[in-house]
Amino acid sequence: MPRLVLAGDIGGTKTLLGIFRQEDRDLVLVREARYPTAQFPSLESICAEFLRAGPEVGIAAACFGVPGPVIGGTATPGNIRWQISDKAMSSALGGVQVALINDMGASAYGVIHLPDTDSVVINPGASLMHGNIALIAAGTGLGQAALLAGKGERYHLIGSEGGHASFAPAGGEQIDLLRFLEHEFGHVSWERVLSGPGQVNIYRFLRSRSTEPEPGWLTSALAAEDPARAITEAGLSSRDSVCAHAVEMFCAMYGAEAGNLALTVLALGGVFLCGGIAPKILPALKSGAFMRGFTGKGRLATMLGQIEVRVVTNPDVALLGAAHSALAML
Questions:
Q1: Which of 53, 137, 169, 318 could make a disulfide contact with 274, Cβ separation 3.0–4.6 Å?
Q2: What is the CATH classification number for the domain harbouring 108?
Q3: pTM of the full structure
């Protein structure tokens, strides 16, 4: 009988669960479902509802990608009111092996199993087939992770909370942005500029310096919907020059921090942009500002230009990675 594994991608808004069936060395998705995280008292309760809804029996192992650090098998995500532990989840699932990994770690294990059709190349580079890999994901926050290449086709996950490291501006305009945000937040992390809220912070800074008043249609859009989305759409369409400037500035800084991460882990195996923002701003990422930021590292600019950079377009990459992590425990 084929073995089954349970995988989860846990987020502050939604929790995605999936059951996968092992077929040789591959995994095939049997069933998945999304649940509103805030409507459940625990991860155990979501898993119980998910498993009750299907006919599958005999889960052999489980792995869950969770936001924030996992320490000693326990995670207390900042944006979820649960405490999650591998021991409690194992007990709830009948004693099977359970692993908790950071959600970016789950994405990292996922990207090495993605087909090429699930990502878009924005810099072809000349990456090694089996070198260190870096991941950076701008979304609600800014996630980072790395895979260090081991022997054969093995990788070793390096978790990170680098999105909370101090923002390092480049050039006078970004220095002014840092001062603007320091006045409001004190410490300014990369997440303050590279995230959905970060896009809004950039826009607010640029509008405060602009001689152009905010148009009424934009004021209404910012109030009626997700302001980051409104800014991005107005910028990509060039409907508002300040929004267009904000999107370009975002891309330049995204490239700069992705380049910093690539240098930190010597990511000759490639850099992957995950998270919800990158697929939505693909034209802007391809326009040049991102790669200028990525390669703007002085003497190592040429080396960085040879690193392949991809945007992951599969929104379930973390679920896939969690499933492969569960399989690896068997």
A1: 137
A2: 3.30.420.40
A3: 0.92
